[in-house]
Specification:
By secondary structure, this protein is an alpha/beta fold. It is built from four helices and 16 strands.
Amino acid sequence: IYVVEGRDSALVIDTGFGSGDSKAFIQTLTKLPLIVVNTHGHGDHTGSNRLFSKVFLHPDDFYMVNAKASKDGRDLPVQVGSVTYVPVREGHVFDLGGRKLEVIEVPGHTHGSIVLLDKENKILFAGDNTNLNTWLFLRDCYPLEVYLKSLEKVQKRVDDFNIVLPGHNTPLEKTFVSEEIGCVKGILDGTSSSVHYDHPSNTSGALICNYKTAQVS
């Protein structure tokens, strides 16, 4: 969970697994009004959404939070219990007052994955699009070819950030994105070696591949 303060409001990026009262804790860090956005719809990033009245989420991931996106082609808010889900798409800018974060669509880990670029401060909030080990074996994932296009899209903006803040584990250098690209290309062209991915969530017999410090499973 990241909390980004501007002059007028603070942006909460993801809400975690849902254990404890994360909203109350966040309010000990900032007294500013809160805007909440999910980088994607997986439960470890949306678990505390119920504590907030409004959450921004890409509509392609609405189904993960039991929301039904509009079928008429319009992006309309959807009510799920006490939470209103507001569709967010490519190019949307969260203006916090003196600090802006741009939404970039990066389908791959999920259909509606996004990252948030703080260009002025040279920070990319990457969700699960960029992790030391990016999961692509889940049923919600797109094929490697789609994920590669998303990585290459982010790589084109590499001059706009100096550090990557991922959805899991420690901050990464921006050069890591190119290593992810190398890992995916190695899988696609058959030059990357792989081993069984030993993880409790791996019920599909997924493999894990390495390229420099990047891993894709």
